Amino acid sequence: MLDALGSLFQHAAMTDGVTVRVAVTYMPEQSRVEAGKWFWVYHIRIENHREDTIRLLTRHWRITDGRGMINIVDGEGVVGESPVLAPGQTYDYVSGCPLATPHGSMEGFYTFGSSEGGTFEARIPFFPLAAPAEAG
Q1: Which residues, other chains included, contact 77 with Cβ-Cβ below 8 Å and sequence gap of 6+?
Q2: Cβ neighbourhood burial of 97 (10 Å; 0-12, 13-18, 19+)
Q3: What are the structural domains, with CATH classification, of the chain?
Q4: Could you give the CA distance from residue 84 to residue 87 in angstroms, rounded to a whole number?
């Protein structure tokens, strides 16, 4: 499945043996440009290339709109889950991001707990949010 979907992912970062891949899509049918609302869906794949089992504990997002306004989002897990990944396993989820501008960006990190003890952070790569010119 990774080979079939691998080409979808436009952005990737590896930290301490965890790869985070991102594919982002502008959603015109969920946007309301006339009301100043643009919407994107992002697909995240987390890959555990470590020797230990890991559990996603928290997320930290830095969302920046086209005016430079920054919104920090911290929370437990992702989409209501705290996935556990054994060595070699992957976890996929899809979520969305609304903005009040046609352009912006997202980046951040996940905090994981390790079966060997301790916690570590894995970077979520920077990715742009850009509506097509006719939508902005």
Answers
A1: 56, 57, 58, 59, 83
A2: buried
A3: 2-135 (2.60.40.1470)
A4: 10
